[in-house]
Amino acid sequence: MANGRGTARAGRGEREWSLAVDFGTCFTTAATFGEEAAAGSVGPRSLEIENSRCLPALVCLDDSGALLTGRAAQQRAAHHPDQAERAPKRALARQSAVLLGGRSVPAAELAAAVLRRVCAEARAAHDGRPPARTVLTHPARWGTAERDRLADAADRAGIAAPGFLPEPVAAALHHGRVHAVPEGGAVAVYDLGGGTFDTAVLRRTARGFDTVAVGGDPHLGGEDLDECLRDLLGERAADRDPDPWHDLWEDPGPPAAAQRAALGRELTAAREALSQTGSVDLAVPGYPQPFLIRAHEYRAAAEPLLARTYELLAATVADAGLDAADVHEIVLTGGASRTPRVSDLIAERTGRLPLLSADPKSAVVLGALAALPQAAPPGPEGAAAPAYAGGRVRRYLNPDGDLGFRFTPRP
Ligand SMILES: Nc1ncnc2c1ncn2[C@@H]1O[C@H](COP(=O)(O)OP(=O)(O)OP(=O)(O)O)[C@@H](O)[C@H]1O
Ligand SMILES: [Mg+2]
């Protein structure tokens, strides 16, 4: 250790630090606030793991039964897809356990592997000291059962008394820090990630934001857009020769499983490329020539799904008792909101140009971090943390039974 201490005890000259983690379906991001040993700066800083601010969500069992994360998991999963879970967050939301390589692994343990890795990397940047406080974000539509499983995962990962914050609320808090929102002004958040879609309307108050309405669909995201592209490709393949396509999806053997996983990655990369280019080529096992897919064809295939996201946003704005014209800003976050049709659709339907930041992925984690009380002393050991340490998020039911959140920062 550079300073010879390297323990979890905060000493003279050391400053406590805070951690925010946005546990994502495709990628997990984290940010810290506090003095780092190497960098000597206070932050907020996005945490880099393996030279990237986005840790792939995928986890994979190794031969000893341990769960790998990051590049090691990706490398192994390419050859042992049956031992990998691509989306632990989706597993956490849907079931209590997952079969990996014939073994039942608790979904909370898969999520814990990701959280444990993030925490270990963050601690390593802070002389091994644990964070004084940690906040985890989650989809707005997650109920108690899902949040309890996330809390279980945090516990397994050794995270002491974390706070929890809905993702779109965090995104709006970040927006409010970066852009001026007049008091009384409403911000509508459209957060399309890899596996979840969140909407929220928050109103600026003198001291923070009130969450007026939340909505979305916790089972809709970039993965469903991948399926749109895959169906389009399947139609093309069937026109040319249906047999190799059929074999690819029906063959239960490991080689075909590895080919399906590789095609899945190709589809995601192609879909992202279609945000910038007019066409992509996709090679499919069993076909000597690649398939050319044009952006307008993919757009038509994805239109019903994206139209649905708009309808959900409109429903949340209506729930807030507002019209799109009354909203101060419509903010896009989440990687899949980079799909050009998202902005176009919202602009067409509302006459308003939504705001897509240059880094829509970081808004959630920075928003969660920004609201933590950076200088407050940690609570007594073992004491239960408040639901959200930077202030209070109160949950309430709207008259129509929908869950709402109200955030009031600590003065
Ligand atoms: N340029 C792009 N165009 C279209 N989609 C993109 C682009 N860049 C990233 N994506 C998509 O964004 C998704 C990942 O977004 P993000 O990292 O925000 O999700 P996540 O936080 O992991 O998931 P969630 O919030 O739903 O749990 C992937 O589906 C990815 O393909
Ligand atoms: Mg996300």
Provide structural commentary.
The protein has 411 residues and is α+β, with helices and mostly antiparallel strands. It folds into three domains: 18-167 and 364-393, Nucleotidyltransferase, domain 5, CATH 3.30.420; 181-221 and 303-360, ATPase, nucleotide binding domain (Nucleotidyltransferase, domain 5), CATH 3.30.420; 222-299, Actin, Chain A, domain 4. Helix content is 37%, strand content 23%. The protein is built from eleven helices and 20 strands. A seven-stranded mixed β-sheet has the order 18-17-12-13-14-20-19. Strands 1, 2, 3, 4, 10 and 11 form a six-stranded mixed β-sheet that branches. A three-stranded antiparallel β-sheet has the order 6-5-7, with helices on both faces. The longest helix is centred in the C-terminal third of the chain and has 25 residues, at 295-319. Mean pLDDT is 85; it is low at 1-13, 375-392 and 394-407. The structure holds adenosine-5'-triphosphate (ATP) and magnesium ion. Adenosine-5'-triphosphate is lined by residues 24-27, 89, 193-196, 221-222, 268, 271-272, 275, 334-336, 338-339, 361. The site of magnesium ion has 6 residues, from loops.
